[in-house]
Amino acid sequence: EKNKPLFVDFTGWTCVNCRYMEQNIWSDPDIDSLIRNDFVLVSLYVDSRKELPPSGKYISPRNGKEIDTYGAKWAELEIAEYGEITQPLYVLLDQNEKLLTVKQSYTTDVEKYKAFLQKGLDEFNSRK
Q: What is the average pLDDT value for the chain, to the nearest integer?
């Protein structure tokens, strides 16, 4: 709808590294501008305890456990789609939910993170 790549932020309410990234990396003016202007950001809290509605609950085909909270749902998605359960984890997706570049996790390197975002944006624009 917005003709922008999707920026998926797997995060947690209690994630210290997530807060570090938000405060020290995302606050960089170039990174802030890229996120605000060139992506659609969605943050999925893998430790959310908010209960899913009855129609949204299900049994994980991966391990047979009941998925009954939003946090469990987002954690299951992270594991099933991206093969890990780490926070933060960032993925950039095109309009078909295909990865635009390799996933990115915690880093203290602003330039590396900026390059991750720019590479994903460039790849998205090349797929148009």
A: 97
Q: Determine the straight-line distance between the first and last CA of the chain, rounded to whole angstroms.
A: 14
Angle at alpha carbon of residue 77, lines to 74 and 80, rounded to 5°: 150
Burial of 116 (0-12, 13-18, 19+ CB in 10 A): buried
Picking from 109, 48, 115, 54, the residue whose alpha carbon sits closest to that of residue 78 is 48
pTM over 0.70: yes
C-alpha 5/C-alpha 127 separation (Å) is 11
112: DSSP letter: H
Three-state SS sequence of 38-86:
HCEEEEEECCCCCECCHHHCEECCCCCCEECEHHHHHHHHHHHHHCCCC
